[in-house]
Amino acid sequence: MNMKHLFVGIDISKDKFDAAICDWKGRSVFGPKEYAQDQTGMEQLKTDIEIYSKEMRTDILLGCESTGIYHLPLVEFCDRNGLKIRVFNAIELKKYHKSRVRKTRNDSIDAMTIAKAMVIEGDFPDEFKISPEVKTLRQLTRVRTRIADQISTIKRRIDKDLDIICRGYTKLFSNIMYPSSIAVMKKCIQLTRPFDRSENELSEILKVARHPDPAGKAKEIRAVFDKAVIPDGYLESCVLEIKFLIQQYELLSEQKEALEERIVRLVSNFNTQIMTINGIGETNAGIILGEIGSIEKFDDVDELVAFSGLDPSVHDSGNFHSVSKHISKRGSPYLRTAMYLSAVSAIRCNPVCKAFAERLKNKGKKNKVIIVAVARKLLTIVYSVLKNNKPFFVPKSIVITET
What is the CA radius of gyration of the chain? Predict the structure, then answer.
């Protein structure tokens, strides 16, 4: 890097951002100055930068902290106007914020801290442009994940209400939100005469909902209903909440399905080799592609593993060296979750992952440890397939066994 560069640190909040410039020795050159978080403010920042760039006869590099959503408009503005900007993860800047002797923080101080962090970091990473299609895929998969999280929350709340007014019902179904279970709840959980349905009526409800064994399941449900003890004061609140939550569940499920259809169409347009990897479905493929963005920004597979947070925590001090049993859980939680879920499937249908999991199991490893290890293994396969743009294949050394 040319030592004559000037570095602009930008601290961004909801309605404004502060910018400060320092030279390659970390000495303050300009600011901090406050700008509006809009087109006018960004244009003013660009003008100020161009003035200093001409006066100092040098290039100016920008840096800001990833703030969830507030940094996105500025980053997009910089990309469109040819301004090179580095986006720091909050974890990267934490050590610089703590390094100040005085325990004082505000937007102006943070802007200068970011500028000085750019000087200390030295290397300014190459920016790999991510296409609008990949950005769209990333945001759609994140929305889909948030909706899936809401659905999981609804399931837990319904489960809690059922345990209060009808203990034992939640054990009758592997998933209480199966269509047959929802049909029973809609017909039987009511304020007047709750659970007042005969075994034949329950069997008919389950038959309409296409349960494989309506008569047998109806008998089990009737037995649970007969033993139900409803605490005083809880019936109305639990019944109403269950009904409201079922409505929310059905709406969110429709929205999630619509998003997944859109994600699948986008993934098919990429013509990616990632779909040749056994265990990675179309939705998870969309999450993985969206979160990675460009595989070229990772120099090796270790960087990608670290980005996913599937790398082990390492602690070194003097002669002491320890590798934690726990993963770091830094980086993209969306990518980490997608790899974990894909690993569960890959253990069953991917010969490479299945053989790897069996070796770990024979060593006495616990199930969750095995899944995490397989997720990391699967990510190395993803890296190789995307980096080389070649389909996944099973090495001859792997013995394929039928399950």
Answer: 28
